[in-house]
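Entry: Glycosyl hydrolase
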Amino acid sequence: MELEELSVVEKAAMLSGASEWDSRGNERAGIPSFVMSDGPHGVRRQLGEGDHLGLGASKPATCFPTAGTVANSWDPALAETMGEALGREAHDLDVNVLLGPGLNIKRNPLCGRNFEYYSEDPIVAGRMASGLIRGIQSNGVSACPKHFAVNSQELRRQASNSVVDERTMREIYLTGFEIAVREAAPMTIMTSYNEINGTYAHENKHLLQDILRDEWGFDGMVVSDWGGSNSAVAAVKAGGSLEMPSPGFTSVRELECAVAAGTLSEADLNARAAEVARIAAATRLTGVGRDDLLADDVAADHHEVARRVAEGSAVLLKNGAPTANAAALPLKPGARVAVVGDMAKTPRFQGSGSSKVNATREENILDELGKLDSVSVAGYAQGYDRQGTKNPSLIEDAVALASGENVDVVLAVVGLDERSESEGLDRSTMAIPQAQNDLVAALAKTGKPVVIVLVAGSPVELPWFDDVAAVLYVGLSGQAGASATARVLTGEVNPSGHLAETWPLRYDDCPSSGWYPAIGRDAIYREGPFVGYRYYETAGVPVRFPFGYGLSYSTFTYSALVADETGVEFTVTNDSDVPGATVAQLYVSGPSRSAANATDGRTVGVLRPVRELKGFAKVSLGAHESATVRIEFDRYTFRHFDAKADKLATESGIWTLSVGDNAERLPLSTPFAVAGDVDAKPADPALGSYLTGDVKHVTDAEMAVLFGHEVIAPGKPDTFGVNDPISSWAGSRGFVARTVANTLIKREADVREKTGAPDLNTLFILNMPPRAMSKMTQGMVDSAMVDAIVKIGNGHTFRGLGGLIAGYFRNQSANKRTAKEINHD
């Protein structure tokens, strides 16, 4: 039977989940159900009902480094190797669609989910994601890049509206997804929870139809984030294929009624059902036996892959003694090392939330160093309380160990704890716990060289940076991160990672620090395109580490830059006796940033950052070896989005091409004439502070010029609606609603304090708007019941409870009727 021959209700039923992780197939049309699973850096396969927050048990799987760490490799081929292993494990665990990678732009370092995202730059994010996607899909499993799009904060994540100008959205927040779609052809893509300029992502026609499908050529399935669907009818019209998890049959009835009423075309319903059916057909799992994942050879092979990825992603941030120019790393043969820090013994190698993997193995740095013959462990001290409580005796013990005559060097493992980086919760500070800062300060005073191993999924402030001998940033390095770290520390591996995001000196330096996270409904992207290095380099703000920064045990020089019509060529030389790798980076500066285009003292050309990354290459060289490196131009190199003309355009004029190993160290540059399709014109002076990148002082009037319209944040609502989060009920006039919200807020804080980990379930409820209840309860709650719940939120407790009870019985009867209709009983 052809899909079009199915009844309207049967086709509508295919557009929502059957359970937490399963789609709803159709036996009459031969369309099987398929399984989806979290998997940005490891397969979180839950059996039975499961959950989407990482709370319930899952099958063992390899935990690879997180995306924020893998991006520091700047190596799409390495990401592809990791993706091949991920796809193999997904295949062997009966997973058809692996929900990842995450490639949202890191707009602000405090986003709690940044460890799951690649970069502040769309070129890096898109190219790294493309590698992972190709690897995953080589196994016949669908990858699912997420969260599409403009998703930058966890606070109010299901009830937030990202307000962004069209040009910034296209150039910064969508380009990474575009690269992934065009270069890796993912079969599935996941929409974000938030609204974008007033329309939910899963029902945003401009996003899903105009851009994703019509412009980029995507022909796959669009799935909602779990509970992220708003209106099933609006989603089908706009290009949203599947809402997850199971909303029961409420959405089925809504779609059936809309077709009957003529407000939804059956052609749109057929198109969405066909997209779901194609995934079911394309990901039928055959071949490898399902027990192979637990075989020792597969687990060992994939552990080795995880280690190689961690090794390629480690970033050497500093390598010189504070009083001399001597390198502290690699550790000298025979060095006696005092190991300090709770995370050296009890590892932290992944974040909290839906990406949390039940790792097949665990390692710790203390044990891994102890296995090596090249150094000896002189002792171990805990150094600090894991939860951040000040404990002077722990510091005293660590100082006593470090001061011993049998210690040559102190290795301190510090960083962020489990409470700091999690889905559902943004960080409150860029600092690591003060107890750890106090420890490092005390160790530095011993006079022994202190080497820091830094564990964190995103940037942190480093008040002791000038006082330590070396800093190795390992990020969240996966289950094999400890052995990878030991190999880097001892020189068995030469670090080659470069930062995929800027590290500011302090949080206040961040361009969006004054308005992040948005506590109300509207998250206004006032900074426009000046995100990350685009801001720091344009506004001249000093940073701790520039974008693209990374040291090595080798030294490299760049020379002989030549540009032609299709790309640039240059020479990279390893000047040292040590084989190593560097990341060559190509940046462009548009006509408005070139003195050659100045007219009467005014810059000519559209508003741009001072420079933008447009290509890169990981270059491995033997001792004293040279290589010619070529980076090709592509569709992204010189373009910008012309919002007034609603099209992509290229400015004619003199551009500047620069090459080096980070955004500030660019020893090679050359002017380059571009023959575009529009002439450069003087920049609009009404943009004011945007012209110098000084976005912290942008006025509302200047922002209106950038956005093309006035942007006004709405005031606090007098009443609550279906899309206001439960947390907002803390201000309700109703005693019951106010008590519910405040009790949940207190419970989450208490659990986090007692356990040292966020209470993900409570956080999800607090961030959840009532309308999500009809999407997350497998049919127990329908839209009429949601309206009754909102009455409770607005203080009409008894009226709301009455409607809720009556609605429950009506909904149960309706569900039974719909089930019979679908099953032809």
